[in-house]
Amino acid sequence: MALEKRLESLAEKALVALRRPDSSVSVYLLPDSLMRKLNFKYRRKDKPTTVLSFVEPKVPHPETDRKVLGEIYLAPRYIYKNKGDIDRLLLHGLLHLLGYDHARKNDKIRMENKERDLARRLLKQ
Asked: Are 18 and 69 in contact (CB under 8 A)?
């Protein structure tokens, strides 16, 4: 649970850095098997993945005065097994919730630059 809290804190700092302090996201840590199921169900890729982001549908959230952007799912064991950086992947997932994508080359460059900038500012990289 400590990792989940640390990642939620990082997400909040990233939202402030992105000038979205009025927004929030939920972060979930999942086992590889569940990430694989979600990856297949929503992306038709039958393999585990490091991060999945789901944009919040237009549902009211009377419990908060913040705009709920969506949910970020991370697979820590899979990330660490593949020598990934869970903090960077959280930032990557957050950028997806904010509309960034990497389907086309120009979009990929834009997203990578924003991710690198955020990481440098928040992770001291």
From this structure: no
3-state secondary structure of 118: helix
Q: What is the pLDDT of residues 71-98, one digit of tens each?
A: 999 999 999 999 999 999 999 999 999 9
Q: What is the dihedral of CA 82, 83, 88, 92, to 10 degrees?
A: -20
Number of structural domains found in the chain:
1
**Residues 75 and 31: beta-carbon distance below 8 Å:** yes
Cα separation, 15 vs 13, whole angstroms:
5
By the 10 Å C-beta count (0-12 exposed, 13-18 middle, 19+ buried), 74 is classed as buried
Give the domain range for residue 58.
2-122
Q: How far apart are CA 16 and CA 5, in angstroms?
A: 17
Model-level pTM greater than 0.85? yes
